[in-house]
Structures are given as structure tokens and as C-alpha cells.
Design brief:
Shape: globular
GO molecular function, one term: nickel cation binding
Pfam families: UreD (PF01774)
Subcellular location: Cytoplasm
Order of helices and strands: EEEEEEEEEEEEEEEEEEEH
Distance between the termini: 41 Å
Subunit structure: UreD, UreF and UreG form a complex that acts as a GTP-hydrolysis-dependent molecular chaperone, activating the urease apoprotein by helping to assemble the nickel containing metallocenter of UreC. The UreE protein probably delivers the nickel.
Function: Required for maturation of urease via the functional incorporation of the urease nickel metallocenter.
Number of domains: 1
């Protein structure tokens, strides 16, 4: 349920994907409210597809949005979004929060592929994404962040991405950008003046026996193996279009089973 409190809006969306026993995936739980709306779209093969639609502006200052997704054993789920999410300043004071909690059971597969998050001037947003995977789970997770709309300075954006496989952390990454962020975020060691940054986390059981090779992909992107059956792609670019192209090319370069 969505609640407007003095500090902003609280909203929760929940997805559960389950093997239907007939070669497909059912969605016994598909709940959303307020600014977050979930819509089932046409399935492909055994995979269920869900679109996250922004029903209102936001997140604004003081808002707290949460998305929870669970893929049960043997199910396959792909989640995207209908448009970019724009973090905006609001009348309520304080930081906005956007939390994503994902859980994939053995032999389950999740593709989490939202559109870009845009940090508009004057906004203040903290994003946390936590993923829990069983040993034989599969994952493709994409995050893309754009600092400011065309011709404007960015707001403050802090993000943390954590991925655990069989209870073991394989990735715990943080980035803070914009006003008030630690110095150096725009320097050569981090964004080097670019305004779009993204990452892909790809988890496939076969990577345990044959880890990916660390590679630089053109200008602004790299692939590195993680401590487990996983790989991380990181990219920076001058704009969202170029960033998406780099991430798509990197994903296509990874070996498939």
C-alpha cells in the first residue's frame, strides 16, 4: 500500500515467479501501488515478463520506494521498465530512497533490465540493490545511471549493489556522485568527466569451471570475473545511448552455455 506521510510517499511492489509445471512460469504474486505499477506482458517460451511502470513522478525528496522480486525453483522471469526513472527534488525535505530486493532459487533465472535512472538537479536519492542467489541460479542484472538531464548539473546520487551466491558475497559496490559526494567522483579514477555510468552482473553456473577473462572492451568498458560463477561489466559514457550500446556489446561478448 502507498502511504503519503509528512516525509514523503511509501510504496511497495512485489513479484513472485513460480514454475507452473507445464513448461512455463506463473506469477502468483504481482502487487503494486501508488507510484509503482507492475504489468504482466506477453511471455516468451518458459519466461514470464513483467514491466514496471511509473504511475507518478518520483522518487521525490522524502519518498521511499521498494521493489521485491522472488524467482522460485525452475522459474524464469524478465523484468523491465517502461521508461527511465527520474529522481526529482520535492517539497518534502530529506533524502529519497529506492530499494530493490531480489531472490532467485536453484535453477531459477532472472533478467533484471530496467531503464536508466536519471539524477535531476536538486534531487537527493539513495539506491540499494541486494540480490540473493542459490548456487545454480542465473542472473543478468543491469543498472544505468545518468547524472543530470541535458544541460543541467546532477543531483546527489548514492548507490550500492550487493550480490550474494549461496550466502557468500561476490560483489559489494558503492558509488556516490553529485553535490556532497566524496571528492574525486568526477575525476579520472572514477567517471573521468562522463555523465553516464552502468554495470551488468551476469551469473551463470558454468562460470565456476570456466571463469570469464578480464577484458577491456573499447573505450570506457571492462569485464572482470568475480569470486564465484559471475562476471561484472562496468562502463562509463558521455550519454545514455552510448552507455547502453557498451553494455549490450559486453553482454553479447560473454560465453553462453
Amino acid at each position: 500500500m502507498s502511504v503519503r506521510a509528512g516525509a514523503g510517499v511509501r510504496s511497495l511492489a512485489r513479484i513472485v515467479a513460480r514454475d507452473d509445471g507445464r513448461g512455463g512460469t506463473s506469477l502468483p504474486v504481482l502487487e503494486s501501488d501508488g507510484p509503482l505499477a507492475l504489468r504482466r506482458t506477453r511471455a516468451t517460451g518458459s519466461e514470464a515478463r513483467v514491466m514496471l511502470v511509473g504511475a507518478m513522478s518520483g522518487p521525490l525528496g522524502g519518498d521511499h520506494f521498494t521493489v521485491e522480486g522472488r524467482v522460485e525453483e525452475g522459474a524464469r522471469l524478465s523484468v523491465g521498465s517502461a521508461a527511465a526513472t527520474i529522481a526529482l527534488p520535492g517539497q518534502a525535505k530529506g533524502e529519497a530512497r529506492y530499494d530493490v530486493r531480489l531472490d532467485v532459487a536453484d535453477h531459477g533465472e532472472l533478467h533484471w533490465l530496467p531503464e536508466q535512472l536519471i539524477s535531476a538537479q536538486g534531487s537527493d536519492l539513495s539506491v540499494t540493490t541486494r540480490v540473493e542467489l542459490a548456487p545454480t541460479a542465473r542472473l543478468v542484472l543491469r543498472e544505468e545511471q545518468v547524472l543530470g538531464r541535458v544541460g543541467e548539473e546532477p543531483g546527489r546520487l548514492a548507490s550500492r549493489l550487493t550480490v550474494r551466491i549461496a550466502g557468500r558475497a561476490v560483489l559489494d559496490q558503492e558509488l556516490a556522485c553529485g553535490p556532497g559526494a566524496p571528492g574525486g567522483w568526477d575525476g579520472p579514477a572514477v567517471l573521468a568527466g562522463h555523465r553516464a555510468v552502468g554495470q551488468l552482473v551476469v551469473v551463470r553456473p558454468e562460470f565456476a569451471a570456466e571463469p570469464v577473462t578480464a577484458t577491456v572492451l573499447g573505450e570506457g568498458a571492462s569485464v572482470v570475473p568475480l569470486a564465484g560463477p559471475a562476471a561484472l561489466v562496468t562502463a562509463v559514457a558521455p550519454d545514455a545511448l552510448r552507455l547502453r550500446r557498451l553494455l549490450d556489446e559486453a553482454l553479447a561478448s560473454l560465453p553462453r552455455s
